[in-house]
Structures are given as structure tokens and as C-alpha cells.
Write a structure and sequence with these properties.
843 residues; mainly beta; Maltoporin, Chain A; 22-stranded antiparallel beta barrel; 8-stranded mixed sheet; 54% strand; globular; TonB-dependent receptor plug domain-containing protein
Length: 843
């Protein structure tokens, strides 16, 4: 077998009568997990039936080394249905892949009820450095994907690495690449997640299902913050167990419209209420996610297939700033997508054309104005909740919109014999244009440096001054702003694969250019496979590849935006003065001139060995990441500004060693793998910490006043040194099937932000008045090891005709173990055992 396109080759998308011999051939060498006879038409003699655009072959091992040499893991619809979670996510499927790490929040209460897809790190890459593809075109978000502020960012809204959140029920096939990635993929230094949405088949079929969980079906552990009686505050109240619920409802129906045209329709709705502790009380955050997909598939003659799809996937989040009064906000995300794909099988050549348009948004509605009050007679909710200052308000309305149009063309030649060599080629081109808009329609004031003064006179100004209690001596000003930036991209890629006896080798190149960084990036791709004994029992692979990252438009937006500036004021005879713009220190601007594109050089070696009826895979992946973005801060220049100048001084290294074994025994599927990995880095991510910190930019760490930026190289996530996963699925009968998954994650150290504050140095407020700064406390934390078991069972009850009632039960964290998401000495809630119930009708 030779390399295939990202999507299943056209030769596998022909009429079922044409593909049936191939299925029978596959069945003769691979033991099927289930027989999909119900998907076959009654009359196999007719070549005019609708093409089976997604063939469900007997279940085989999803990945490893294989003949191609690429680090490809392929999951068909059987895998998605067996290991996909009841909540509509692909988390259970991704756990079967060595080298994938989940973030620490994935096991928290918020993580278990968050409707956004779980973030993942692939082969040491940061979670936003992956490439996401749906139906041949990109689904990656470039609007501040690393921000974890949710709706709480001053200059941005918590982003996500995916533009649209698709329900697992829409996906017919999933491909994940963790190493030796083909040249057809670019714009990443982590890995690739390529999804193909479902297509209509030769007969009508439908599904209606509902699943859900609620607080009455879950166990929780609550923890109360440590209290110092000498602090002067009241003892903290223990957080109450959360009252929450989450459900998911979905419907899809596909049917042939004619002998050569089929339509698939899918609608899903998800809802959750997530508990959180704020100001000593438990409140819920509400999320809603919808998916609507229409996909028309048509055979145009005997050699071509056309897919046209429209997707609507809005996301809504109702939340609040933690420990901040009157801070409720609403964030709207997601968006729209239109795509068309055309595949044509010529004489010895296969053609693929994909054209798409996508619009995704991050819009926020929130109170305009943020106040960090000292605790006084009328402002003391911070003291009552033992969280330091009495904070109030929000960061105002904000709109961020991403719109992209892209076109991709790929050509693959069928294998050609040249003497003892078997050769085939792949070439392709991609072009795209994107626009990104940032719109703040009202000036925002963020107040800090509150000064207690029992004699202060506010002159009737109540929003930033409390008569005879306190007033603010400083504030940051974010002017109203409306900026649009654009990006043009182009890429060319080519690969040639040659097979000679037991040896197969691939050499490829990929060229990328965009008009933001203006770099001509040429990446080499190479991999080789040796079938040691010529019987596919033992294979050895090696690869040496370079991957260039994508141009995140967060940078370009920051450069185009108007910078914030500071204002100060004092008092004269206890009467507050007018605000004045701060001078001498200078305002910040961003500069991204003459920087290189970050890249990753990868070296891979691996062995695949048949063992005990399954396949054992051993693989070592080493990556050297260079030219990663970092920053240099200048002093005040002649124009009155200080500059954050981006440079390429960031770097990181990754080494991962994985050992896995997969087997299919009749109706039993077993997957076991363990990974040891180590990641060293001198920069945490691309984000600038100043936008998320107080004006001082300093914090307290180990009792010392240190710059916040110095903590970046110490913080870590997605970096558990040891991860072991065991997945098991078994079909007991046509009616009963079950799965189990156990996952161990080793312990590690990280730096944690606390809710405590301490006094720092005496500083000049800007008006000549000396005040005492307050520093947020950061401390070391040992993340404990976790061992969690998930179980699930499905029972099918045949009804009239071909309809089947399906009842399911899923138990997450079945042994009710600790997940260690609440830091020692802090208040919080941890989830334990959690039940999901589902009920569906297949017809």
C-alpha cells in the first residue's frame, strides 16, 4: 500500500458492488469486530446505486507504523461509536493514541462539563500549535487561541484552537498524525487532526438520541481555603456541592435522493451548567453549543464525486469573573462554514479539489469598567469572602471576527512499475485569504491603586470614589477601537514514494508563504520503512522532517490596535483632582518586523512487531523547536512609547518514547500504550503577560518580588512525564456491548497562581504620591498522580422493521478517585464518580 490523501482515496468511494470484492478480501485477512450487513443494499447487481461514500470495513488496528511510515492513526465510524463519549466529544478516542497529552483542567469540574473540545498536546507541541482539518480544509482558530481567560480578557476573549466545535456524531472518519506527517499538511509544529464528516449511503438511515448527567448522579469533594486567624478576616465558608446539569440531544438522517445523489442532515444541541466558587458562594456558568450540518453527496458519472456541505455551529457562554462582584458576561462564539469537495479518478491520476468559506466569532457583552476597591465600610465583600480586594465590574463589550476563504488542489498518481521499483507521486497547491476584525465600541477604564482616605471629598463623582472612604489614584485607559487586518497565504507541496522489494521511501517538500511574516518557508519531509522479513511481521521506520508553524493573527491585531495608556490623580486638601495622562513612563506598542517563522525539526525511529495476534509498536520521537516567538521590552523611545519587539529567541525540545500494543480478537478490541516524555522550554507561549496583570507587572514568588514574565519558563501544562492508557471494548452479542478505559498520569511540579495578595514595595503612583503596591502570590504546587477508570455499556433492543432502541450507561471515574485539581490550602470542588445516561433510536 502507498500513502493516501488526507481523505479516503476515490477508489474506495465507488459503488458498493464495485467495492464489495475489496471488502471480502479485507475480511479474509482481518477478523471483523462487527458485520455491517445492514448497510448493504438488497440488490448488489445494480451499479446505479448511490456510491458508498464512507465504506465501513472490518475493524483493524487504528495506527502504529504501518506500510506508509507516517505516524498516522485512523479511526473509522466503528471506533467513533465505541469510544466516543456520551457528551459528544472525541476524548475517549484520542486517549488511544500514544504521545497525546490532555491539560490539567480536563479532569476538573469545569473540564468535565465544558462544551468546548478538550485541548491536546501532540508530541510535545503546544495545544494551539496543532493543525485542525475538516473535509480537507482548515478549522484552526487564529484569534488568540492560547488565551484561557474565557470571557475575562481585557484586550481579548478566551479563544480556542478550533474555529467550530463539531459534535462527534457528525464525523465519519478521524485521522491523527503525531510524527512523519506528509507534506500535504502544513501550518503546525505539534500534530494534525483531520476529520471527515459523514456522508449519505445507499439506503435511508436515521438516529435520534438524548444523553445527560446531573449533580444528583455525581460525587463531589469540597475543600475550604486555609484561614489565618490573624488576618483580620472572617473564616471562609466551605463551598457548597454544586447543583448542575448537562445534556446533549442529536438527530441525523441520511437518504438517497436519486440513484446517484444522497443528502445527510444532522442537528445537535448541548447544554451545561458548570459550578464555580466565587466570593465564597457556588454559582453556575452556562454554556450552549449547537451543530447543524447539511451535506449533499453526488456521483457525477462513474469516476467523480461531489460533496457540498453547510455547517452552522454557534457557541454561547454565560459566565462571570471569579471573585468579582457584578461581573456577569455573555460570550458568543462559533460560526458558519460552506464547503465543496470534488474528487475525480482519471486514467492513472486522482484529483481532489476543495473550496471553502468559514466565519467564526468571539463576541462579548459585559459591564464596562473594572474596579479593585480596598476593603472599607461600603466595600468589603472581598474581606467577607477572604479573597483580598473587593473587585467589581467587567471589561466591556468586544467583538472579534475571523473570516477565511481557501482553495486546495491535490493530485495523486496511481502506482507505476519501473523495473523493480514501484513509484507514485503526490502534488498539491493551496491558497487562502483571511480577515480579522477587532472592535471595542466604548472606552474602557480599569481602576487600580485604591487609596484609603477617611476625609476624601469626591466632588459628586461616585463611580471611582467613595465619599470619606477611598479613591482610585490610577487607571488604565483602553480607547474605543475598530481594526481589521488581512492575511494572504499560499502553499505548494510534493512527495514521491518509491518501493523496492522490502524497502519503501518517501521524499517530499512543502513551500509556504504569507504576507504577514513574509517568509519563504521550505520544509523537507522524509520517511522510510523496511519490512525486515518480507512478511509484514516486523517493520522498522525512520523519518526526518521539518514543520513550520502558522502565522497567528493575534500578533497582527496587537500591532494594529491602539495601545492602552495610564492616567493618575491625587488629592489637594483631601479633594480628588482631575485625571491626568501619565508621562515619562511611556505607552506600550507591539512590533513584529523581520521575524522568522517558528519551526520544528523532528527525528523519528520506530518498530512495529506482530505479537500475540496483535501489533506492538515502539517509537521514539525527538523534536527541536527553534525560532519560537519571544519578546524584548524597550525603554521609552523619543516618540514617547515603549515597545514590545517580537523576536525568535524562544526554543524548546521534546523527547517522547512510547510502547503500545493493539489487538482485535473477534468481538474484542484491546489497546495498551505507555509514553515517557520530557519537554524543556524557555518560553510558555506567545502571549504577553502585561495585558492580564496589574500595572506593576510584578508578583510575589517564594517571598520575593519578581517580574511576572520570569515565571513563564517555570510554568508547565500538558507535560505529565508518564502516561499509561488501557482501552478495552467488547461486543457480547448483537444486543450488548461494553468498554473500559484506565488512564494513569504521573505526578509533576508546576507554579500556581493563588487568590492571595501581599504588600510589595512603595511605588510612585505617577502623581508624586507614594503608595504601597499589592502583589498576587504565586507558589509551587505538586500535581499528584492520578489513576482513573471509565466504564460504559450499551444495550440494543430491536423494534419494528430495522429500528433499534439503544440504552447506554457511562461511568466516569468509576472508582471515585481524587483528580487533584484543587490546590492544597485552597477552596474548590473536585468531581468524583459521574454517571451519564443515554437513550437513542436508530431507524
Amino acid at each position: 500500500m502507498m500513502d493516501s490523501f488526507p481523505r479516503m482515496p476515490l477508489v474506495y468511494r465507488r459503488t458498493l458492488s464495485e467495492t464489495l470484492p475489496m471488502l471480502l478480501l479485507s475480511a479474509s485477512v482481518v477478523t471483523p469486530l462487527s458485520v455491517m450487513a445492514q448497510d448493504q443494499p438488497d440488490d448488489l447487481s445494480s451499479a446505479e446505486t448511490l456510491p458508498e461514500l464512507l465504506i465501513t470495513a472490518p475493524v483493524t488496528n487504528p495506527g502504529g507504523v504501518g506500510e506508509t511510515g507516517s505516524g498516522e492513526h485512523v479511526f473509522g465510524q466503528d471506533y467513533i461509536e465505541q469510544f466516543g463519549s456520551s457528551d459528544g466529544s472525541l476524548e475517549g478516542l484520542l486517549k488511544l493514541i500514544p504521545g497525546i497529552q490532555f491539560g490539567e483542567d480536563s479532569e476538573s469540574v469545569e473540564g468535565l462539563t465544558d462544551l468546548k473540545p478538550e485541548s491536546i498536546s501532540i508530541s510535545g507541541g503546544r495545544f494551539y500549535e496543532n493543525r485542525f482539518v475538516v473535509d480537507g480544509l482548515g478549522n484552526s482558530n487564529r484569534l488568540d487561541p492560547a488565551s484561557d481567560s474565557d470571557g475575562a480578557g481585557i484586550d481579548g476573549i478566551g479563544g480556542h484552537e478550533q474555529a467550530l466545535f463539531l459534535d462527534a456524531d457528525l464525523i465519519g472518519e478521524l485521522r491523527v498524525y503525531d510524527s512523519n506527517v506528509p507534506a500535504a499538511y502544513g501550518g503546525f509544529t505539534g500534530g494534525v487532526v483531520d476529520a471527515t464528516t459523514r456522508r449519505a449511503g445507499s439506503k435511508a438511515e436515521g438516529k435520534l438520541s438524548v444523553s445527560g448527567t446531573r449533580s444528583q448522579w455525581a460525587e463531589f469533594r469540597t475543600y475550604t481555603r486555609d484561614w489565618d486567624p490573624e488576618s483580620g478576616g472572617l473564616p471562609p465558608s466551605p463551598p457548597s456541592e454544586p447543583e448542575y446539569e448537562r445534556y446533549r440531544a442529536n438527530f441525523h438522517y441520511s437518504s438517497p435522493l436519486t440513484n446517484s445523489v444522497g443528502l445527510m442532515t444532522s442537528v445537535s444541541q448541548a447544554y451545561s451548567e458548570t459550578p464555580d466558587v466565587t466570593l465564597g458562594k457556588t454559582r453556575n456558568r452556562v454554556q450552549r453549543n449547537q451543530n447543524v450540518l447539511l451535506k449533499l453527496s453526488s456521483e457525477l458519472g462513474s469516476r467523480s464525486v461531489l460533496d457540498i456541505s453547510a455547517t452552522y455551529a454557534p457557541f454561547e457562554n454565560e459566565g462571570y469573573l471569579t471573585d468579582v462582584k457584578s461581573s456577569d458576561y455573555i460570550v458568543e462564539g462559533g460560526g458558519y462554514s460552506l464547503k465543496a469537495g470534488y474528487d475525480y479518478l482519471g486514467e492513472g491520476v486522482e484529483h481532489e479539489i476543495d473550496l471553502g468559506w468559514t466565519q467564526s466569532v468571539n463576541n462579548r457583552e459585559a459591564p464596562n469598567g473594572y474596579y479593585s476597591w480596598e476593603n472599607t465600610r461600603s466595600r468589603q465583600w472581598g474581606r467577607e469572602a477572604d479573597v483580598g480586594l473587593s473587585r467589581e465590574g467587567g471589561y466591556g463589550d468586544l467583538k472579534m471576527i475571523q473570516e477565511s476563504t481557501s482553495l486546495a488542489y491535490r493530485v495523486k498518481t496511481l502506482p507505476i512499475a519501473i523495473g523493480p521499483l514501484e513509484v507514485h507521486h503526490q502534488v498539491g497547491a493551496e491558497v487562502g485569504q483571511s480577515s480579522y476584525r477587532y472592535d471595542r465600541d466604548e472606552t474602557l477604564f480599569v481602576y487600580d491603586n485604591a487609596v484609603i482616605n477617611s476625609e476624601v471629598q469626591c466632588r459628586g463623582v461616585a463611580e471611582d470614589c467613595v465619599q470619606k472612604e477611598q479613591y482610585f489614584a490610577g487607571r488604565r485607559v483602553y480607547d474605543a477601537d475598530d481594526v481589521t487586518v488581512r492575511l494572504k497565504e499560499a502553499a505548494l507541496h510534493a512527495e514521491s514514494t518509491m518501493g523496492w522489494r522490502r524497502l519503501s521511501g518517501t521524499l517530499g517538500l512543502r513551500y509556504d508563504y504569507n504576507d504577514f511574516l513574509k517568509n519563504h518557508d521550505v520544509a523537507f519531509r522524509s520517511r522510510a520503512t523496511l519490512d525486515v522479513f518480507g512478511d509484514a511481521s516486523t517493520r522498522v521506520i525512520a523519518g526526518y522532517n521539518r514543520y513550520y508553524g502558522a502565522a497567528l493573527l493575534t500578533y497582527k491585531l496587537r500591532e494594529a490596535r491602539a495601545p492602552f495608556y495610564r492616567e493618575y490623580r491625587g488629592t489637594e486638601q483631601n479633594i480628588v483632582a482631575d485625571w491626568e495622562r501619565e508621562s515619562g513612563q511611556g505607552d506600550y506598542r507591539y512590533v513584529f518586523d523581520d521575524v522568522k517563522t517558528p519551526f520544528s525539526d523532528e527525528q523519528t525511529i520506530g518498530v512495529e512487531q506482530t505479537l500475540f495476534g496483535g501489533v506492538m509498536t515502539f517509537k521514539v520521537v525527538k523534536r527541536d523547536n527553534q525560532d519560537e516567538f519571544s519578546r524584548t521590552e524597550t525603554e521609552t523611545q523619543d516618540d514617547g512609547y515603549r515597545y514590545f519587539i517580537m523576536n525568535n529567541e524562544g526554543r524548546s525540545e521534546y523527547l517522547g518514547i512510547s510502547l503500545g500494543w493493539n489487538a482485535v480478537y473477534g468481538n474484542t478490541l484491546l489497546s495498551i500504550h505507555g509514553t515517557w516524555s520530557e519537554t524543556e522550554t524557555n518560553n510558555a507561549d506567545y502571549d504577553d503577560p502585561i495585558d492580564d496583570m496589574s500595572a506593576s507587572e510584578f508578583v510575589s514568588y517564594k517571598g520575593e518580588r519578581v517580574p511576572y514574565g520570569d515565571l513563564d519558563i517555570l510554568r508547565s501544562d500538558f507535560n505529565r512525564p508518564i502516561v499509561v492508557n488501557v482501552g478495552l471494548s467488547h461486543r457480547f452479542s448483537d444486543q450488548l456491548s461494553a468498554f473500559a478505559n484506565a488512564r494513569y498520569r504521573g505526578d509533576y511540579d508546576q507554579i500556581k497562581r493563588t487568590n492571595r495578595e501581599v504588600e510589595g514595595d512603595l511605588i510612585d503612583s505617577g502623581s508624586g504620591e507614594v503608595i504601597r503596591e499589592r502583589l498576587t502570590v504565586y507558589e509551587d504546587e505538586d500535581r499528584k498522580a492520578t489513576l482513573l477508570f471509565d466504564l460504559g455499556v450499551d444495550y440494543r433492543i430491536p423494534l419494528v422493521r430495522d429500528s433499534v432502541l439503544v440504552a447506554g450507561l457511562e461511568v466516569k471515574n468509576a472508582l471515585n478517585d481524587r483528580v487533584h485539581t484543587v490546590s492544597e490550602g485552597e477552596s474548590g470542588v473536585e468531581p468524583g464518580r459521574q454517571l451519564w445516561l443515554s437513550l437513542g433510536l436508530n431507524f
